[in-house]
Amino acid sequence: VQLVESGGGLVQPGGSLKLSCVASTGTLADYAVGWFRQAPGKEREGVSCINTNYGTTYYSDSVMGRFTISRDNAKNTVYLQATSLKAEDTAVYYCAAEYNCWSGGVYWGQGTQVTVSS
Predict the structure, then answer these.
(1) Cα–Cα distance list, 9 to 36, 37, 53 (Å)
(2) Looking at the DSSP assignment, which residues form a beta bridge with residue 55?
């Protein structure tokens, strides 16, 4: 499975972005998909995940209520809608295909930069 993220960019505090994770090869519906982020000098953090069964979703406390994960299996794509963005959301965001949420990424994308700044 080859994953490609897009949708990152520069946004002002309080703004929104919609990140996409597309599987250019393989079937993303066979996997749970997690979004992770890594800021300079910090460890990688799990942000959100969506499972295969019933599309159960999970969020870290830091993004709960602000980010929404969803999947469109027909488009082989998982989205992360990020709203009310804060400076501390600045990071490189990665998606990963997992067997179950938080079980460990099997396939990873190359990442997309999100910068929240005025």
Answers:
(1) 16, 14, 31
(2) none
Q: With contact defined as beta carbons under 8 Å apart, do 53 and 41 qualify?
A: no
* pLDDT tens column, 52-67: 877 899 999 999 999 9
Q: Would you say 37 and 52 are in contact if contact means Cβ atoms under 8 Å apart? A: no
Q: Between 18 and 55, where is the model more confident?
A: 18
Helix (H) or strand (E) holding 91: strand 91-98
Q: Which residue has the tokens 């079937």?
A: 27
Contact 62, 39 (CB under 8 A): no
3-state secondary structure of 6: strand
